Amino acid sequence: MVQYSNFSTDYKLSKGRMFPENEDFNRTCFMRDRDRIIHSTAFRRLKYKTQVFVYHEKDYFRTRLSHSIEVSQLARSISKVFNVNDDLSEAISLSHDLGHTPFGHAGEDVLNKKMEIVGGFNHNFQAIKILTLLEKKYLNFDGLNLSFETLDGILKHNGPINCKLPDYINSVLEFFDADKGTYGSFESQIAAICDDIAYNNNDIDDGLYAGLFDIDQISEIPIVEKVIKTIKLNNNDKKRFNYEVVRGLIKLMVDDLICNTKEIIKKNNISSCDQILSFNKNIVCFSDDIKDQELKLKSFLKKNMYEHARVKRMTIKAKKIITDLFELFIEEPSLLPTEWSEFENKDQKLTKVCDYISGMTDKYAINMHKKFFDLYNL
Predict the structure, then answer these.
(1) CB-based contact 263:238 (threshold 8 Å)
(2) 254 CB-near residues (< 8 Å, 6+ apart)
(3) How many domains does the chain contain in total?
(4) Is residue 18 part of a domain?
(5) Domain extent for 151
(6) What's residue 239's pLDDT?
(7) Ordered alpha helix ranges (H), the chain
(8) Model confidence over 86-133: pLDDT tens digits?
(9) What pLDDT does 113 receive?
């Protein structure tokens, strides 16, 4: 019988933190990591950062904060099935989107182009920067001084790293003598795939609620049709029916994930954490059939939601706001808050402006744009 507990990242064997601290008598290091993330400024700002719809569209739609909580819930549940460290899974899940810009990928696209000369912008790398440098709440260090395993799980959210990394990440890896080319821990892999499950299915929920498409359109995808056939409709309440479909899709994906992961573990005689890290692919994954169905689901959402005229209009406005603010602060850095306005050269100025704008919420960016570009608001 497979002992899944052998895959758990043992907090007692953690590589520790960059800055030494006394251990907490009542909490493990990963519990403390989770708590620090929840109390961080960057986490709180996720409340007003776009998932798909800009925050003020309607209160119903998901934000980066609600999405992160939903990912965390799924990750904790699956971690308990495999008896691995659910505190670590939760810490990674809650922090995986901290580096996102205002207006989601629209904002990221703009900053990436503006920062090409210094290596571009990557929201996953930015999350590490926030957690190691930009959060300033402690007397003795910048960042949150998280455990290596939490930082590594966030960094390898999408698997091994095979690209050039910024200096602030290289310094972390060098300090812990870590290998960027290995796969993430079991808990990291759980958090990553729960991100996919959450945003796919909850984007369906938001899309249905917004009227961007209806249940008949999405039922053309076999996996959705399969779920619909299991639902016994007792009345004509379409909203309840839609909720049942989304809930059924989440359950189907989670069940497939658990079953397929167990099969991979058994087939490959995997019995330790080290084998998971050195394996040639993610161990926590869907079956081939569900992978194929998920691609069809993503294709549907891209065509009918992300490229919908209503969403595209928001995207165009969002890119205009971020572009205007970036160019303004580059030309007039004196308009930046004091803590962001000190730099020694052009590259540092670009970085400071980028960090400042990427940390904004949708709400703050919109208000800032009105302040500087609304000629009737002098």
Answers:
(1) no
(2) 74, 77, 78, 197
(3) 3
(4) no
(5) 4-10+27-175
(6) 87
(7) 29-38, 41-45, 64-81, 86-95, 104-114, 123-129, 148-155, 167-175, 186-210, 215-218, 222-229, 238-267, 273-278, 288-301, 309-331, 346-358, 362-373
(8) 999 999 999 999 999 999 889 999 999 999 999 999 999 999 999 999
(9) 97
Residue-wise pLDDT for 256-271, tens only, equals 999 999 999 999 999 8
- pLDDT attached to residue 53: 63
Tell me: do 201 and 161 sit in the same domain.
no
Q: Examine residue 58 and state whether it is found in any structural domain, yes or no.
A: yes
Nearest to 168 by CA among 113, 114, 122, 126: 126
Stretches in the chain below the pLDDT threshold 70:
1-3, 53-60, 375-378
Q: What is the pLDDT of residue 378?
A: 47
Q: What is the CA radius of gyration of the chain?
A: 22
Q: What angle (nearest 5°) sits at the alpha carbon of residue 220, between those of residues 229 and 62?
A: 90
- Three state DSSP letters for 279-300: CCCCCCCCCHHHHHHHHHHHHH
Quote the CA–CA distance of 95 and 162 in Å, as a whole number. Answer: 22
**Rounded Cα gap, residues 367 and 375, in angstroms:** 13
Last-in-domain residue among 266, 285, 310: 310
According to the 3-state scheme, what is the secondary structure of 101-161? CCCHHHHHHHHHHHCHHHCCCCHHHHHHHHHHHHCCCCCCCCCCCCCHHHHHHHHCCCCCC
Q: Are residues 50 and 170 in the same domain?
A: yes
- Among 175, 206, 237, the domain boundary falls at 175
Model's pTM, two decimal places? Answer: 0.94
